[in-house]
Amino acid sequence: MKEKTKKVSIRQPRQERAKHTVQVVLDATVRLLKRGGSDAITTNRIAEVAGVCVGSIYQYFPDKRAIFAALHQRHAVETRRLIERTLGGHAASSLHQLLLALMEGLVDVHAVDPELHELLDREIPHRASAAPGLRAALRGVIAGRAHQLSPQANLDRVLFIVPNMMDVLAHEAVLSRPVQLSLDAAKHEAGRAISSYLHPHPGDS
Predict the structure, then answer these.
(1) What is the pTM of this model?
(2) Residue 198 and residue 158: Cα distance in Å, rounded?
């Protein structure tokens, strides 16, 4: 029988002082992650590094797992803002141009702090359910411009393949690319992969 995942409850801060406390706690958690990984983190150590009392942490996070979920959520919010900015800046662009711009932007977002993203993926394999996932957001972008796809394109297949490609390529371009491949070259190759799928050569199936 499959075990149900317990939902993590996170109290959302409303006042500016409370929001600042939450961000300080998250930043302290990131510093501790980089020092010793998730196993070495305790709420007492987070409080010490953040310069707050443990009680302040428990006002917003019931346990360490909730803090980790909030880190994923913060990244999801940053990614959603990137998508919104790119959509606003490419309102008149084709779907193809928009996806290439999103692909480049996603790589850049992950490149800001690659060590943190690697730790989040490796040591805290949890996706915050409170924020829309990247792949769901990309599916929404594509579905909104589905009329721009070629008549031969199968929308269901495109909605499955392209968001998954972009999500994986954005992570791997930053975290796992060969040493001889620059970040700019990785972004270029990722864009080529998207273009090749959207516009296959004649005879490709």
Answers:
(1) 0.74
(2) 8
In contact, 198 and 107? CB cutoff 8 Å: no
Helix axes 16-36, 114-123, angle to 10 degrees: 80
- Rounded Cα gap, residues 46 and 172, in angstroms: 30
CA-closest candidate to residue 5, choices 137, 132, 129: 129
- Other CB atoms within a 10 A radius of the CB of residue 186 amount to 20
Tens of pLDDT along 58-98? 988 988 888 888 888 888 888 889 999 999 999 899 999 99
- Residue 97: alpha-carbon gap to chain centroid: 21
Where in the chain are the domains? 9-62, 72-198
- Fold exhibited by the domain 9-62: Arc Repressor Mutant, subunit A (1.10.10)
72-198 is classed in which CATH architecture? Answer: Orthogonal Bundle (1.10)
